């Protein structure tokens, strides 16, 4: 049965239209958590909605309602537990990998699984890779599982996400390749003293501010995957202007090899990615 069918008897047509029906389910067949956006007008019906989700998806043990946008350095949001277990730690399965995480304590997006696979497909044999803003290490683990690489450093500032990254590296048996490090990329990257073949910068709101750090770890031929947020009407313009300025300042030559829309990022906004090769 679908959630819509289940709710049709509990909500009016008007209320159903207002409900943001798309929700995320993070976890496994054994235990999962649902995350949903419910508009204020439907607050009174929140428990009914959560019950419908748990009735249709038997593996969902808790329903969380988004209560704020993502905020702060750790990119976390507030949630309200509508129904179910207080313990929202889950083992999420994706692309043959397993990620242990609590969505209330760390950033994780199930919607980015295709992007993780797409990046992994670009990786060449024996590459040395730097993943800035690594989170619970989904990018490094998907890459390490799919490709034969040399080393992947995953730098993350949220101690809880770093703790999960270590557990996930062990869970996925990629400890010979993936090295999670706790700290601010601005402090940690220079200490690694390496030049990388590929650098991932998955912090859309601010990644460009760390281009100088990425460039200090790059060499001729390094590919940088720079994520950003742009208005729909001029998709890549803002981010490209920022890159031009930053590169000029740092006296670096580069070529943009790909521009991509990744995912919707709010009303008329997109998460985008620029793939840049250092010349
Ligand atoms: C958008 S999330 C992406 C996480 C992960 N790459 C993923 O795809 O699930 C950005 C992450 O960068 C971390 N972060 C923010 N500023 C940082 C910094 N200066 N140094 C290291 N990590 C940082 C946040 O804690 C957050 O986990």
What are its keywords?
single chain; 279 residues; alpha/beta; GMP Synthetase, Chain A, domain 3; Rossmann fold; 2 domains; seven-stranded mixed sheet; four-stranded mixed sheet; 9 helices; 13 strands; 29% helix; globular; binds S-adenosylmethionine
Describe this structure in words.
This protein has 279 residues and is an alpha/beta fold. The protein has 2 domains: 3-88, GMP Synthetase, Chain A, domain 3, CATH 3.30.300; 111-278, Vaccinia Virus protein VP39 (Rossmann fold). It contains 9 helices and 13 strands. The protein has helices spanning 3-8, 13-18, 46-56, 113-122, 138-146, 159-171, 185-192, 211-216, 237-249; strands spanning 24-27, 32-36, 60-66, 79-84, 90-94, 97-101, 128-132, 151-156, 178-182, 196-201, 218-231, 254-264, 269-278. It has a 7-stranded mixed sheet, sandwiched between helices. Strands 1-2-3-4 form a 4-stranded mixed sheet, covered by helices on one side. Strand 12 and strand 13 (269-278) form a beta hairpin. The longest helix is centred in the middle third of the chain and has 13 residues, at 159-171. S-adenosylmethionine is lined by residues 73-75, 107-108, 112, 133-135, 138-139, 155-158, 161, 184-186, 202-203. Residues 73-75, 107-108, 112, 133-135, 138-139, 155-158, 161, 184-186, 202-203 line the site of S-adenosylmethionine.
């Amino acid at each position: 049965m679908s959630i819509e069918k289940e709710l049709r008897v509990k909500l009016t047509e008007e209320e159903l239209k207002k409900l943001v029906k798309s929700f995320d389910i993070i976890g496994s067949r054994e235990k999962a958590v649902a995350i949903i956006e419910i508009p204020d007008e439907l607050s009174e019906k929140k428990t009914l909605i959560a019950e419908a989700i748990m009735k249709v998806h038997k593996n969902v043990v808790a329903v969380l309602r988004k209560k704020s946008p993502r905020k702060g350095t750790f990119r976390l949001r507030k949630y309200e537990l509508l129904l179910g277990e207080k313990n929202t730690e889950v083992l999420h399965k994706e692309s043959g990998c397993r990620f242990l995480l609590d969505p209330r304590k760390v950033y994780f997006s199930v919607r980015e699984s295709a992007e993780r696979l797409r990046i992994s497909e670009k990786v060449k044999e024996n590459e040395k890779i730097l993943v800035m803003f690594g989170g619970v290490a989904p990018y490094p683990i998907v890459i390490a599982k799919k490709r034969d690489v040399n080393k992947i450093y995953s730098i993350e500032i949220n101690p809880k996400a770093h703790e999960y990254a270590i557990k996930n590296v062990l869970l996925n048996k990629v400890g010979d390749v993936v090295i999670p490090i706790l700290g601010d990329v601005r402090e940690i990257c220079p200490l690694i003293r390496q030049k990388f073949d590929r650098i991932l910068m998955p912090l859309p709101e601010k990644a460009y501010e760390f281009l100088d750090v990425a460039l200090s770890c790059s060499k001729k031929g390094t590919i940088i995957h720079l994520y950003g947020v742009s208005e729909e009407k001029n998709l890549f313009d803002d981010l490209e202007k920022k890159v031009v300025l930053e590169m000029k300042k740092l006296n670096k030559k580069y070529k943009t090899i790909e521009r991509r829309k990744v995912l919707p990022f709010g009303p008329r906004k997109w998460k985008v990615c620029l793939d840049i090769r250092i010349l």
